[in-house]
Design brief:
The chain is mainly α. Among the domains are: about 70 residues, no CATH class; about 55 residues, no CATH class. The protein is globular, with a radius of gyration of 21 Å. The chain starts with a helix and ends in an 8-residue tail after the last helix. The relative contact order is 0.07.
Amino acid sequence: MRIRRLLLTVAACVTMHSNTLATPPDTLKLESDCATGSAPACGQLGGLYLAGVGVTFDATKGAALISQACDGGVQQSCTHLGALLLSGTGLPADPARSAVLFAASCKAGSGEACHYLGGQYLLGLGVQTNPQLARAHNLTACQRKVPAACGHLGGMLETGFGYEVDLKLAVTMRDRACTGGDIHSCYKLGRIFEDGRGHAKDLKRASDLYLQACRGNDATACFRLGELVKQGELADTLGQDSDGMYARALELSSPGCTGGDVMSCLTVADVLRATGRPTEASKLNAQVLPHLNDTCTRGDFTACVELSSMYLHGHGVEVSTSQAATQQARACALGATNSCL
């Protein structure tokens, strides 16, 4: 679950070269310059092949060109290559090698590389899980103005992973990330204000943040906004209706669920339950239960927390307070100190 979010963040790096090029790109010149030894041209051309911009999409060729640029000393291409190796795009996945590349690029000044490396230490991808190194690298990335890294720090402060729980500082970090454009942090900040954790409860602020995140295509934010509107919270101010929010949440999460993404399926189940289809919702919850168990067993405490909630509320399983407590204890053992009761 957290692994998928990191890989989605990394996927944005896969096309970063093409985003900086003029439109339409002069592919013939880039081909010529790359062939005559220009490493930056190879890196830019690789980005085009990976994005399918100006050329036919070819992940394998794109990855080879990015690797060539990295070998030629283009540090940005080394960060890009690390992202490709982490996600297995265009070449076999090799998280251990991606960590080496990210470490070098981070040391050379790349905030994005520091963020990705911090994510690897957070999740144990290609390296041993290390909360302290996860914190250090994300802090460096946040200081280098990478919004998602600030969001990761906020999450660590919320859960107590690598930090003592500090919800006030978590709000500060989530706010910085949201302001910088990290949509998921806008949703997470909204939850803090809705629940009144570490900050005075503020449903107006929560609703505004959910609306911002929903407009940025965060399905869970659309669902939470639908819930607040349904409960009669600030409906007139927002000018939204719950049915519209639920429909948007379903539209955004259904493709991911069809593709096997557990978090998307959980959002779909929430929408089904909120719109009067509890049997369908429970069936979907039951389908993702084995995946959550597997992910929790592999060390992702967020999956353990989801399992605890499912057993507590009887979503797809029989209500079991003992099982809920067991899953909460697993989350605690994995480093989520806010789950330690």
